[in-house]
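Reviewers of the previous submission asked for a worked example of the structure-prediction workflow described in the proposal, so we include one complete record here. The input consisted solely of the amino acid sequence. No template or homolog information was supplied to the procedure at any stage.
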Amino acid sequence: MESIQSIDARKIAPLEKHPTIFQLYDDLPPGEHFILVNDHEPRPLHHQFQNERPGQFTWEYLEQGPEIWRVAIGKQVSVAEPTIGEIIAQDFRKAEVFKRHGIDFCCGGKKSLSQASSEVGIDPQVLRAELNSATREPGGGTLDRFQTWSIPLLIHYILENHHNWLKTKLPEMMPLVQKVSQVHGANHPETVEIASVFQAIVDDLVPHLQKEEIMLFPYINKMIAAERAGEEPPRPVFGSVEHPLRGMEADHEVVGQLMDSIRELSGNYTVPEDACASFRLVYGFLNELEDDLHQHIHLENNILHPKVRDLAQKLGV
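From that input alone, the workflow returned the following structure tokens.
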């Protein structure tokens, strides 16, 4: 019979405690557990497990002070695999891992980790190890807190930080994208295609933003007001709030595919040696646009929309 592993947190340097404990947990076979020994209540560790391994662990107190705390921490035998969107919603630092492997975490957020791994030809275990490593790095910032934000605060943030940026940058950069295609198109025909795809992105995004600002977001705010007042919300002219949500997500899918085309055409935004300042500026902007859209679409598809769907179900709209 194998002995149960035990780890004494009192003997580990403060900055190494949680990473060491998580590494031990990650190495556990499903159904096994280890004993954590500590000299104080390990509540912060429990909160971190809830955030980073939701639904995947067991936590049983064996001894609760006053001098010694002993906790049995186990790995669930069968865990419902989280989606890419759920993983990113818990910790946006993991987005860099998905981006590095070409995994779409915004429009493709409903795929499971195994499915996404298979599509790009990477071992799921390797991907999980990289994701776990990403959470041990400092940082994360505001993006990690979005999951806890209210619907009105999320909408305000999206409007102020993403809609306003797009409405400023798209018309500002359109002439420059066209200029680069005209000047460099003979030697770099990909710039002509990029200009065409960028025009398609603008043509899709402008009415998309308008639909959110004029129709969807105002109705969501009416839902919030009705819930707070304990009243029934007005019936939407579009029948059900699910209809515009699906429409927005379909738009996101199209724009995501168009940005993928630009990334491919530009060779991952690789600037050629003979590029002028305008050429470099355009490629830098397109890379920035892709990053902004990834965050923007992630916030809506994986955080805002699920919250709105839960509220709509509660209110019957």
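The beta strands are 5-8, 33-38, 57-64, 69-75. We consider this example representative of the routine output the project will generate in years two and three.
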